[in-house]
User: Fold these one by one.
Assistant:
Number 1:
Amino acid sequence: MNTRRWTPLLVVLLIALTPTLAHACSVCFEANDKNRAAFFATTIFLSLLPLGMIAAMYWWLRRRVIELRDLAAREDILPMGER
Amino acid sequence: MATLTASARHPAPRATLMPSAVIGTLLFVFTEAMLFAGLISAHAIVKASAQEWPPTGQPRLPFGETMINTAALLASGVLLVMAHVSYRKRADLATVPLAMSLLLGSFFVLFQGREWVALLQQGLTVTSSTYGGFFYVIVGTHALHAVAAILAMAWAWRRLQAGRLSAAQLGAVEVFWYFVVLVWPLIYLRVYL
């Protein structure tokens, strides 16, 4: 078995065994309710904002496509002289 | 093929889904929206974990006075909508509402500059506290965007006067200004309250 392939995995596992060295949890050392609520609210806000912007863009483009399709259909129905 | 009709030789321009100028500005606005979201979120977390907010010895932000400024900015946004509607009827009709929107936007920035001078005199600086730091970074970033958008509006107004402003160019300027207008109430309510 190639030890080179397993070394990174072994390193990751060893790091995973020492969680006390990493202070990744920002609310763990300042755990008051207000702070926790702020973290929770901002996580939701920052997660939903880009999705909301993409959804808004999709909705607007879809509306515009329908508008243009209707316009093209109307132009096809109209006699040549009325275009 | 020698008897091509005039319409076949010069086909009517196709309506575009969205002008490139507007798409470009929208993408820019999306990234800037995330920048402000990050700044406001950081402010909310620091405020929540602070023992006292605003800190002792630091001046209170002028919530009441800034309300006038906020009203001016919102009115500027409404005037730009009116300029858009007028432009669709006849381009030159948009000159007055666009100029008024530009003036109100400039009033907003100048009023804010006056407010900054007063706060600096009272001892609120970028380094005086996290309260001051957040205030100048968030409001300053917004002011930078406002100045850039005002310059874009002035450029659009000059082109409109010369009869050279296209709907796509106006659309791009509008998107940028609406962003500046709409992000402000959020900043106002989060930072000033």
Number 2:
Amino acid sequence: MTDLPLLSVLIFLPLAGCLLLLPVWNCRVSARPIALGVALIELALAAWLYASWRGLSTIPAQLPGYLLQEDAAWIPAFGIRYTLGLDGISLLMVMLTAFTFCVALTVSWNSITEKTGLFLTLMLVMESGIMGVFLALDLALFYLFWEVMLIPMFFLIGVWGHGRRIYSTIKFFLFTMFGSLLMLLAIVALHLTHAQQTGVATFGLHELLGTQIAPETQLWLFGAFFLAFAIKFPLFPLHTWLPDAHTDAPTAGSVILAGLLLKTGSYGLIRFGYPLFPQAAQTLTPLLYALAVIGIIYASLVAFAQEDMKRLIAYSSIGHMGFVAIGIAAWQPVALSGSIIQMANHGVTTGALFCLVGMLDERAHTRDIRAFGGLWGKIPRYSFFFLFFSLASLGLPGLNNFVGEFLVLVGTMKKAPLVAALAFVGIVLTLVYTVRLVQEVLFQEERQPLPLADLSLREFSLLVVLALLDLWMGVHPAPLLDMIHLPVQLLTGTP
Amino acid sequence: MDMITIPAVNFTPILPEIFLSVLAMVLLLINVFIPGDRKAYLGYLSFVGIVAAGVLVAAGWGGHIESFSGSVVLDNFATFFKMIFLVSAGLAVLISDQYMEREGCNHGELYPLILFTVVGMMLMASGTDLMTIFLGLEVMSVALYVLAGFNRKNPKSNEAGLKYFLLGCFSTGFLLYGMALTYGATGTTRIAKIAAVVGQMSLPSANIMLVAGMLLMLTGFAFKIAAAPFHMWTPDVYEGAPTPMTAFMSAGPKAAGFAAALRIFLVALPTLQVEWSQVLWVLAVLTMTVGNITALRQDNIKRMLAYSSIAHAGYALVGFTAGNGTGTAGILFYMLSYAFMNIGAFAIIILVGKKGESNGNVQDFAGFGVKHPVLAVAMSIFLFSLAGMPPTAGFIGKFYLFSGAIQQGYIWLAIIGVLNSAASVYYYLRVMVFMYMKDPTEEFDWMQVTAPMALCVAISVIGSLIPGIIPSLILQFAQQAIKLI
């Protein structure tokens, strides 16, 4: 094992990459490969971690379930520490992050023509922030990264977006900011409660886990955490920022929003919300179930009525994340594993769908479903991938989404059969709107003569990689499930 | 016949004050011999003087010397605040010349007046006698009235000066009356003695004269720090005053008001904490809310920052209401950070503005991010810091203040504060929306980034960022500073 602080490298490498971009700030041609190079190094690092996680897990760690840890004093006056930790769940998210950024940078290779230097810098800063969110084990540090990742997204949507981009980006920022500030108060309150009980001032997750909190206070604190995470999730009725943000974001922004930012909400609930406030979480579980089920059904119905493809996929995201929420609410090993796998699945599949819509938008300059038709005959390669990822999205067995949804439903069936049944209705509805999308865009007669070219080599290779990943995660999810097995067991307390 | 015995006096505690007063008078003399187009030299001289005073102040760190029969003290609390005053004065001096030159009011008296203001503020921070504090406040205020109306050809500036003068006098009356009543109730003006006398009272809150004195003093200070509902003068004065002076007034004198109020209320009247913290609670909520809601509707950035500075005083009042170690140290930390981020933002406004205070609306910033990327990034840092986003100093400051409130059980106050903070994000973001997300309508070719301006922006960026990333640098001083009170 090397002595290199790998987790810090993961977080700060993209940030350091920004410095490399400075000399070529105005030179788009040389800036793009540098940024992608940095992202690829990150991916290689993540892949190396994945390849060696079994070896790492044999090293006796301070905390059970963790593969790597780093710890240093940061703000001693408050007891805030720079604590990072990597377990199976974080590793999966780290891999997803590193991968998604490569996808986002590749897909926007030609589409970002203005202020490219700024764009690439923001992307790398955001990668740092998101890595930090998935690795931080100190609540104050977590909060820091949580906010830091917001800022680049704000600019990404606002500067390179389309339509009502400014309205959407401000809405997105204010929604998330509102929730996270209340979470900050809850973090401070938790910290102070712990300090009162033990005399130790700390923000460390594992120190705070044992804090005894009165049930009513616990409910308030969990409520604040829950609100912040539910906004990011997004759960009904806090989802209204998402369709706007997705629709108006540039393709790279949509890919990252769907692939990663939504995941930070569910990750936060798994890592912090439930473990810190078990009783309150138990009390509020029916609420989470209800919101998730309403979200799945409502989002599917709304998705059916959409004419804008991006908006449709945005609503489908709300539905898919509803399954993640159900799995968390069940808080049971099978369902929780399903949720975590589903987070990765949704990131890949929906990311791919956003890429596809982005490619179509670049060619036809419209995303209106009514403008298209008969693509299957015109641009067959594109259409194949469109069909492929649509099928993955609706949960075709053999492709990845099926695994996650199946596990979630199986796990939930034991605990809350009614919820599982309703969620199943949701799957059927997903089928309805996805089939409509595929039928109208690919198979119906051509409605407008649009000059469309088939995939370029760059686009083709990107989609091939995504498709292979989808297939691999669908056919052989066992290695990933293996990786998250121990952390999930530790979290749900079922050794 | 009895001789009047003059007690032995130790001048060390007021060494920086003496130095700055002498410097100011020397500058007034030099001013006569400097031609009108070279007034910048006075600025350079006073900046050097401020840095030197900073060294003098820093040398006093860690000491505790009382002097002038216990009416002035040199302690860490005073030292920390003196540094805040020097920082805000130093930055204000840096941005003054270019602005004054442009507006055609580059009179050399500006710099001595700023220095006198600093002397007054320093006396407020180190005064341990109600009279010393009052004297300091007057020295500060009189110089500030002139500074507010310094652009004498501009009616708005005149209005600002007059308005500030009238309302300032009015509020001083409250303060003085409050001090008189406190003297009546306790028989002394020494802060330590007041504390002793009040401590021996069986039920101080039933002593009507004392409570009335406390409330009147609170009103006086609320005027000075522009706490709602005593903030009515602020927007007009801040808008009318020359922009560098607005920047200065919203940072330095406000901190001075907090310094004096903290010392009086925490040292002299801790036994009445239950009473005054109730009043402060209401003031804090009103101040934050009124400041933010009005700032939301402003198109003029100067006016927007003026209202937002009201809101920022409100955040500091949250820490004051808590009245505990965390809250108090939070005020110190916040006031220092605020000086950097606020004056930095004003520096950018001055750079973008044109003669006659024009070109100061948020729409005029359209495309600024494209035309001046470095300055736009600096402005974004200031705005994010003002909005309280990590990893900036503004975030750590708010974190500190709200932690203090929660620690003391003021949960609702913290929640209201946080909601206010979320609302404030909107108007700060709006500037960034225009800077980055709108197409430029102008070339910004009139902008001249002179060396002092660049220095001010650079210092401000460092001051808004570094305490956010490595807060311990400042925190440890802030925590030591409040130990004595």
